[in-house]
Amino acid sequence: MTDRKRRVFPDAFKREAVERVRTSGMTIIAVAEELGLHETVLRRWIARLGGGAAASTSRRPAPMSVTPSPADLAAENARLKRELHRAETERDILKNRSGSQPACAR
Prior knowledge:
Layout: H1 11-24, H2 28-35, H3 39-49, H4 70-95
Helix pairs in contact: 1-3, 2-3
């Protein structure tokens, strides 16, 4: 076996790495690769220095935007069509009203 020397990082570097995970929106794995670290080392630093930001320590990146499902879009489309039909019907009733009196004068 060869003697491998353990790398030692200053506390300021550790704090900056943890802050980068928290603020960049990148995954822990991506930040670790960028800094040349193993992800478990960075996870330990986050656990020790991070104060427990659970969302940023997940292995999966958080979705940037939540898109509605096709079922939600279909339901919204149907609702909007019903609303449009109702508004057009009300408009046609008021438009075809006989007499010269406005609808609000009674």
